[in-house]
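re: that complex we talked abt at group meeting.

here r the seqs, copy pasted straight from the sheet so there may be weird spacing, ignore it
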Amino acid sequence: MDTTIESYMLLSSVIFVIGAIGFLVRRNVLVQLMSIELMLNSVNLLLVSFNRLHTGNMVGQAFAFFIIAVAAAEVAVGLAIVLQLYRLRGAVNSDDATTLRH
Amino acid sequence: MELLTQLFPASHFSLLGLILILPLLAAFVNGVFGKRLGREAVTLMGLSAIFAAFVGAVITYLMLLGHGEHGELVRFHFNAWRWLQLEGVGDALAFRAVPLDVAFSVDALSGTMALVITGVGFLIHLYSSSYMAEDPGYYRFFAYLNLFIFSMLVLVLGNSLPILFVGWEGVGLCSYLLIGFWFSEDQNASAGKKAFITNRVGDFGLLVAMGLLVYYVGALDWHGIEVGRNNLLQPVKVWPVADSVPIAQLLPESLAEAISKPRYASAATLVCLALFLGAMGKSAQFGLHVWLPDAMAGPTPVSALIHAATMVTAGVYLLCRLSAVFVMSPMAMAVVAGIGAFTALFAATIALVQNDIKKVLAYSTLSQLGYMFLGAGVGAFEAGFFHVLTHAFFKACLFLGAGSVIHAMHARIHDTNDSQDMRNMGGLLKFMPATAITFAAAWAAIAGVPLTSGFFSKDEILLMALKSKVTGPATISGGQHRVVLENFVWPEWYSGLLYAMGLLTAILTAFYMSRLVIGIFLGEFRGWKIVPNWVDPHAQPASGAHDDHGHDAHAAAHDEHDDHAHHHHEKPGVEHMEGPTPHESPWQMTLPLWILGGLSLFAGLLNAHLIHIAPLGHFLEPVFAEASKSVEAPEESVESFKWIGAAIAVFIAAAPGIGLAWYTYVVKAGRPAAEAAAKFPRLHAFLSDKWRVDEFYKATILDIVDSLADMCVWFDKWIVDGILARASAFVIQAAGAILRQFQTGRVQAYSAVLMFGLLGVGTYLVLPHANVREHFDHASGVYKLSAAPGLGYKYRWDVDGQEGWDGGDKFGNRTEATFQLKVDEERVIRLEVEGPLLITSRYEKILVRPRPDASSAAVTPQKPEEKSAAVQLPPGHPPTRAGSAPDAKGTL
Amino acid sequence: MTPGLLLFSVCSLLCVGGALFTVLSANPIRSALGLLTTIFGIAGLFLRLNAEFLAAMQVLVYAGAVVILFVFVIMLLGPTAKLIPARGTRSFLARAVGGGLGAIAGVFVISLLVSTKEHAFPIVGKEHGTVEAVGRQIFEHGLVPFELVTALLIVAVVGAVAVARTAHKKSEKPKIQNPTVRLFHGPLLARDAGRPLDGRTLQERYESEKNA
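got the structure back, here u go
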């Protein structure tokens, strides 16, 4: 079971779906950001497990590496925005951040 | 000379490039760096460039003289570069390709012009260096002036109409810039605009003429036009413009017939009238003359250089340059001569009543330009051109003298209108003798005092107006119209009329010029009281300190004569002088006056046919050789008539005019003029209002344009803004109001939509789609079927015509199937595709092999098969089509 | 039960449990701890997949930086980090739709996976997933993206600083009351007519709306 790609795909799908649902249903921006991290991590897992299928090829892991870097950048900017949102609204509720509607 | 000839061969006469580039360089340097260079450097730059150009022009002229000993046309060419090439389209055009070169050429005509432009130009530059010394825009003035010299040289030296046109527009631009030189005053700026816009009308004519020449002659350079000019002798339908007159059906029969009758004119007439329209604009002939008097708003040296000596004679130059074309149309020449004569007379009558000395000179310029056109119009191009030359000398001298007077008057008053008003002058002879003497020399020339330059040139024009007429072939035919057109013949009385008008103009000219000289230089100085706070020690308080030189012409006229009378009795002595006195101008201003005054007196000897000294005439003869063939001037009678004509011109024109002016303004101190004005107030007002041409244009053209503009404003306000803008804005707003409901601004809502999309794409990718592409070989009846590929697809086929799947029920990787059919044989083929979710999709079709003959009739045999293949099952959602579509089951 | 299977099972449980904890807990600090658990679980899975380098990276970057950053922010915000004022029905609808959708997608994807055959991993050499192997891949074939990632990180840092910095007091804008200026530079809709010109900050307007 631990040596087939399918089990890893299943696992990463589960994590991805949990992350997606979390992003959709939670209204705390912080938790939403964490959900995004979950989704990114699930994708990383998928990439690395597919990479395991191919001997002598590291492209998948290199991709995962880049995704980690991008995720770090995203979290930095995202948290800065959360701080600013808090300053502006006094809360970190994503339902409040609807100024773009206008 | 030998060296020069070797250095500048006739076919590549690069000296012209040097002459042209120097003023341009000076203009560039003065314009861009002039502010930082300072006054001295600007003066040096401007003057030296023009002087160098003058030296170049002199050398060119000497070389022309050296070559022209044998009486044939000498022309030096300088081709700078190929500009562009006009390509002909269609069969109707006379040309296939007309090259436009940036090419310059010089012959006797343009050489003389270049000499005048650079020579007089240099003198006026010298004059300006003192006249404009105090002006903050000094460098700007010199940049414009240099640019003008460059443009004028391009105009004169250009070897083709387009190059001439470049110069033509260039001088127009410089004229505009210099008229509006003191642009901070509205009046000056609008005078500049007026000049520019009026000239556009003429430029339109010039452009049309160029188009017509390309169309009919197929050339635009002087030589090409001269060679191909006979193509112009063809009738051209000018009316109706299209095949018929649109409104003709609505009119009564006879009227309709009259207006839809085709009218023809010779191509030469059209070209010449179009060219003349251009010349009218630039040379301010009646109709388009309105800009020239207003152009006096510019600095006086500008008036002298551009609006008297050089630019305004460009029209005459154009006529002379294309004389060979003009003489082909007697009708156009009659128009030229008529307009010229009328302008001469018209402007002279206006000049009679003007008080502003520059205005008098401006109308005098108009009048003299009319003279030139009269001369050219009757075919006496040489006489007309000679008048250009002499006019350049004496009118430049007059304007510069006037500038000197104004300069002196500015010592008393700094008001543009008052300092130019001759009612404030008088007696300046004793303050500024040099100006007065040179002014008098130029006055003698323009009035036609015997043996001065103006005498010879005017006399020649008058003589030729009476004796010379333009003739052409009796009939014109050819071209694409099968008509024979009778050529226009000058009526018998026409020459007499032209002569009478010319003679009357000469008398009036002598009169008003004498009035001007008397008003400025003779009598007592009347300018004392224009100094502020001046109190007349003799007069009662009521008449003192009067500053009301009303703009009402009628009142002004009385005013003037009151002044005359008043001061004559009073005889104000030295004891009344307060404040600064008028003074003679510095040498930079008087030197040009002396030179030009001398030329005004003696330049007539260059072309004095009367006394058989005409070196210029002989020099110019080859230029007009072609044209003179069409001009009818009875040589045998000229000799006997010459002295009579001359005698008439002298005694009837100059002497009575001068004498009458002397009598009126000196002997009788202006009382007869006042009486005349009082007796015919309407006529006087009419003349003072310049025949009310401006008012007429205001009432017609300007008001029409204004009302058009009003209509456009209404359209913009109600149709464009009201309906188009507001209606479309309303639609957009409504659409926005609907769409805004979907824009919640909530990230979750957006990401939910994202998920929907992801789901849709995923579903499409996961569900299998059975598609088959058929390839059919007609000869053998072999069908080759290939299934569309897809992610994780597996296939099973049934193509062998037997029950059950080929090779068992298992799905495999076989994507192609091949089988053969006999003619008319039917077969059911099936394909089932299993997707990654074990959902299957089925494709089923009945194939019939068509008969060969039926298929050979079809143009594209593939087509029917492909069409039937399109009737496949729709992809996706197989369960919903389970009833009609073949079996498809989903397994989760 | 091989050690590999044991590792896989434990790590899978950690991952799924941590993920659920992240999404379900009301307190953000617990969510962060759930995230941390998931990250460690995934790092373990990386080890099982012969990706030692990435496992180390995972722990370093995610556990060491990202989660710490989250925790910092949560502590900075204090109790407001979990304060969610009750709102109207629209957000409930959105949540219902979103959750439903997510569930459908999850079922769909998982069923897709279950239905397919199993593919066993091949045997790979020891060098698979080492620092050297991944480094070779990155520096031999992905140097330019790698350098771009550095640029991205710098931009992200600068951007984060710029965004998170306390805004300076804005200079008072002159109130534009000229009707022409309003016509051409003001808002397009009458509804918005008073909006940008009233000179209030968004914070002030938000508070006034909240009070109203």
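couple things i noticed - Residues 22 and 31 of chain C are 4 Å apart (CA to CA). The mean pLDDT of chain C is 78.
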